[in-house]
User: What shape does this take?
Amino acid sequence: MSLMLSSFPYLAQASIMTVFLSVASIAIGLVLGLLSAVVRVARVPVADPIARVYISVIRGTPLLVQIFIVYFGLPQVGIVLGPIPSGITALSLNVGAYLSESFRAALESVDRGQMDAALSLAMTYWQAMWRIIIPQSFRTALPTIGNSFISLLKDTSLVSVITVEELLRAASVVIARTYRPLTLYVEAAVIYWVLSSAFSLLQQRVERTASKHVRR
Amino acid sequence: MSGGNGVTTGDGRGPGGDGRPMVQVADLHKRYGKIEVLRGIDLSVDRGGVVVVMGPSGSGKSTLLRCLTFLEKPDAGQVRVADVTIGADEHDHELGERIRRLRRNVGMVFQHFNLFPHKTAIQNVMEGPLVVRRLPEPQARRLATELLFKVGLADRADHYPSQLSGGQQQRVAIARALAMEPEVMLYDEPTSALDPELVGEVLAVMKRLAKDGMTMVVVTHEIGFAQDVADRVIFMDGGVIVEEGEASQLFSAAREERTRRFLGLIKREPGGQA
Assistant: This one.
């Protein structure tokens, strides 16, 4: 118990890195996901097949392999990224592909009449997409975005293997010195759990605000 | 664009004021797979004219309206609204631009309103002026306020569509279409999704617009509205215009058996709603 207390400041500090990795990756992932979903829904030539391959490759391979390719593989072709940028790159690419699928479903679920109405106002297709369709799809996608974020928060533990000093890595460091794996891993698990729960609460708040005016 | 004060349109000025009909459709064809929905429609609507289109479901009425603004691409034929003519066979790189020019002259009102649910009533009305006409914000707001007042919803400006009744939503939708200051208004069964007690308020707004000289094509089964407002009633069936004439003539003494049978059916419904 005293070890839990004495190691807590160290682990808490490392969990800031965990949150940072999650927030940075979800931000980039949202952009990637939205872009790749929109080019698919709009059937943009060239971009659509690229998006399709991206999603298929990411969803069809383990995240750990993706992290290794970015961190150990890319230097071989001259792209050298440090552990943190590598981690963020792999995590954003990964979450982006999953978000893309939720965005696509959300975009397609927007009533067809919305596009009709926007086009009838003489908007261009992209004006209609940007101003009318995408904002509404965000609302639909919000629950899945929240879920993706919580998965992501836990997936960041995988980048401990490329020496990023996040929560799991910090726990392992303490274990190496104290030989008390149960204590430390449980402590790490509790911190992950508290973080996910906090973000779940936040997610519920946001969803309630966002859906205030929409009848479904 | 029409020169008016921003609210009254169809005022006899602007493009199309050259004596030609405001809307002209020639030999319009549309098919979905094997089904021919439109089989050669010819139609012309004079400036300030009000044409009511009736016919059983599947007769092609809605498709006709959608083809008029190229929401559906017709397979053959030609459409002209005001000074923009587009043929079904065109596909040059400027086509999109020309379709948008045509649409700027046409206000469309849908059966299910299709208001933007994430925007308030006034934001819905301001959307076209801001994004397409690129009016400055204060001017767009002033125009939208006037239009909401005109449809009797000045006090609902900041309500979201979900907070409005069906009749109110449809009136906002009419205001939204008018905000583009169109030469022509198209209505696709504007009252058929409404509870009976809400139909009147929407029809009243449409009647007032017609009296102000707006050119209108209205797909509806509201016989009373057709009798009061329409210069001409068109009866469609099977993708063709079966019969057309003045409302009084068509309703009392239709030449075609098909027309008589259909009118007999809708008259039996309370309120003439089919």
Remarks:
- Residues 142 and 207 of chain A are 7 Å apart (CA to CA).
